[in-house]
Amino acid sequence: MTVMEARLAEIEIKLSYTEDLLEELNLTVYRQQQQIELMQQELRALNQQADDGQPRNLRDELPPHY
Q1: Which backbone phi and psi does 62 adopt, to 5 degrees?
Q2: Distance CA 6, CA 10 (A)
Q3: ∠50-53-55 over CA atoms, to 5°?
Q4: Which of 17, 44, 57, 62 has its Cα between 20 and 30 A from that of 25?
């Protein structure tokens, strides 16, 4: 194997690892976006529950040990 062939093989190996890493990172970003969207939906639902139009009484929110 010549020096040029060895260098080319090394570059191809590095390219393969880079492609695998990029695919893994893309999948991670996709999963994180799904989690963000789910948390946004849950936050909207909680905000709708809190905005029921009635004034809040802070005594109702005291922990049970008080």
Answers
A1: -70, 145
A2: 6
A3: 80
A4: 44
